[in-house]
Amino acid sequence: MAGSVWGEVFRVSTWGESHGEGVGVVVDGAPAGISLSEEDIQKCLDRRKPGETKYSTPRKEGDKVKIMSGVFEGKTTGTPISMVVVNTSQKSGDYSNIANVFRPGHADFTFDAKYGFRDYRGGGRSSGRETIGRVAAGAIAMKILSELGITVTAYTKQIGPFVCEEEKMSLENIEKSPLRMPDLEKSSLAEDYLAEKMEAHDSVGGMIECVISGMPAGIGEPVFGKLDAMLSAAIFSIGAVKGVEIGAGFAVADKCGSENNDGFYMGADGKVKKHTNFAGGILGGMSDGDDIVLRAAFKPTPSIFQPQETVNRDGENVQIEIKGRHDPVIMPRAVVVDDGTITVNSGDDGFHADLDTVIHGGTILVEKSYEGLEGKRVVVNGGDITINASDDGINAANSGDDGANAINPGANAAGSGDDDSNAASSNNDSSAAVNSGDDSSISGAADGKEPPQMPPDTENGSDMQPSQDFDPENAPSGGNAPQNFDPGNAPSDGDAPQKMQGGPGGEGNSELYIKITGGTLTVSADGDGLDSNGGLLVTGGTTIVYGPTSDGDSALDYDGSAIVTGGTLAAIGSAGMTESFDEASTQPVITYYSTETQSADTTITLTDSDGSALFTVTPEKAYASIVLTCPEMKLDATYTLTAGTDNEEITLTDIITTAGTRSVKTMSDPKGGKMPNNSDNKGTPPSKPSDTAE
């Protein structure tokens, strides 16, 4: 196929179809000796891959890149660099209904008109997945440009009618916005607008702005080799782009020369500079040394879940209603939280994801929330995180299990996702393509069914497997784990067991879990501190939970199993529904009940037989129970626990050792701790804000 090669000195050739075996690119012209790894490429691909937010398609692709040639011992060799990404989530059968029908807004008709034949599976070569090759090539180009002091920054400038205001834009906000908008106020408005259009089964257009800094003057050729012409050709080749402008762009039509000309002056560094940059960094087809500013307008995703008029290959007028997976808006591909400083004040969830909430680092303060972190799977791999919640601090649950809104005013990392725009049914065919289904559930052992499974620990303690159809090689950075684990024996050497039994707390769901592998996590919750409708796994980090003061909730609450293999954790709260860890844990745990409620600000200290303090904390709330574990605790050793007015000597005879005397009367044997037999003691959590709450 002609038209798949771009560039002269740096030559890029992309290949592959969205529903073929894979897609890829060959890059020729990269100089030898440039440091390059698959990780360098993967960072860029992770930013564009589907399924990262609720505003991207539900196709589940890991987009794992493999360098096939042109790199040796971490350096480019000067020979062609070939890269491939294998497709793993094709649903080609979803497209059989459109084999004979032309989708409005798609290239179906033009491909058929040109070739008399087309690959109707998701658009084939015209699919958005073709851009994988461009992104991979771009990662190499950026490595080369960085050696020259040239940087490229792109972000969402506009979605629908909402345009970022220059005075409110900050590049630091790009990764804080699920839409990658540097104006957080406009981002919030755009999110509401998108939610409205998604509800109406419609899509939205927008604009990307790109700023190239550090480009020296004189790059480009006059006439047919103009720099702006070459850049525009490259941008226009992206499937959904319908307009490109440089600098002031189309606004120059309304200007006079006296308004549009950029006056020159000599800078203090002895270089020629401009007072303004209406030219967008390019004059006469050559760079002028200023920032190159270009914008691309993207059309709305043509695949919308609404009846549309079209024709088929037989020349008949038909009606089409597209089903399947598609982006409601093309521009953003958001990421999980890797770094930065984020402060959230929310009347609902602080961070909410329909699938996975993953934190790898950064400083995060949830000053106010209903629930602090929520998702089907909540993973904390690092960072300094503080959560204040009027209900649960962290909640692992299916979306809607607690009546939560699909959209929340906090930080949103919801998963959904497909680069294609998908299948359809015509008015004379009642069959419809099937959307990617919900992940199946596995009941807990309490009813005799298969017990819930948890992701095993690894050396770096950061693996996770979000869902059944998630690419098993590409969990969020930090590793991965297979979804289904074979039954295994009790863990050893600090590893979590491969199979975890459900507990009496309920029927745990293997696809729901809270996992803590690192970082410092402090939770203050009026409801449950850590609440998992599946399992709980702690392998590292330092976690302090100031749980509820009412007996209707617990500092730890889970429906499957709870295992600790490492790290420090103190869950401090009321005694009425205390839950501890399971016997399958490999690190000793103390579950302690105070004879009376201890006042806030009374210190808890654990000392060894030598009098050395292993753990000290001063709770900010009153408490009557403590679940405590830390790496220094050893079986058969004796420790002294001081908690307010209590002072008790405890010998760790079991992996889960219970001590103290609980004043609550309505108790039965628990999983690790104790819990009431009657559900009337559960209490009433605070009211969940309504969808219409301001």
Structural notes for this entry:
This protein is mainly beta and 694 residues long. The chain has a domain at 345-412 and 491-682. α1 crosses α3. Residues 55-61, 330-336, 400-507 and 664-694 have low confidence and may be disordered.
What's the SSE blueprint?
Layout lengths: L4 E2 L4 E6 L5 E7 L9 H11 L16 E5 L1 E2 L2 E2 L4 E6 L21 H8 L15 H17 L3 E9 L2 E2 L20 H16 L6 E8 L13 H10 L4 E6 L10 H4 L3 E3 L5 E3 L7 E2 L2 E2 L4 E7 L8 E5 L5 E6 L18 E5 L5 E2 L3 E4 L3 E6 L4 E3 L1 E4 L3 E6 L4 E3 L14 E2 L11 E3 L86 E4 L3 E6 L4 E3 L2 E4 L3 E5 L9 E3 L3 E3 L3 E6 L15 E10 L5 E4 L5 E5 L5 E7 L8 E6 L2 E6 L4 E5 L34
Parallel strand pairs: 19-22, 20-23, 20-27, 21-24, 22-25, 23-26, 24-29, 25-30, 26-31, 29-32, 30-33, 31-34, 32-35, 33-36, 37-43
Antiparallel strand pairs: 1-2, 2-3, 3-7, 4-7, 5-6, 8-9, 8-10, 10-16, 11-16, 12-13, 14-15, 17-18, 18-28, 36-40, 37-40, 38-39, 38-41, 41-42
Helix pairs in contact: 1-3
Key words describing this protein structure:
6-stranded parallel beta sheet, 6 helices, disordered C terminus, 9-stranded mixed beta sheet, mainly beta, single chain
- The beta-strand count equals 43
Strand content: 25-35%
Question: How does the major sheet shape up?
Answer: 9 strands, mixed
Compute the average pLDDT: 75
Low-confidence stretches: 55-61, 330-336, 400-507, 664-694
End-to-end gap: 54 Å
Secondary structural class = mainly beta
Query: What's the number of helices?
Result: 6
Helix content: under 10%
Please state how the strands of the largest beta sheet are arranged side by side. Answer: 19-22-25-30-33-36-40-37-43
Shape: elongated
The rounded Rg comes to 28 Å
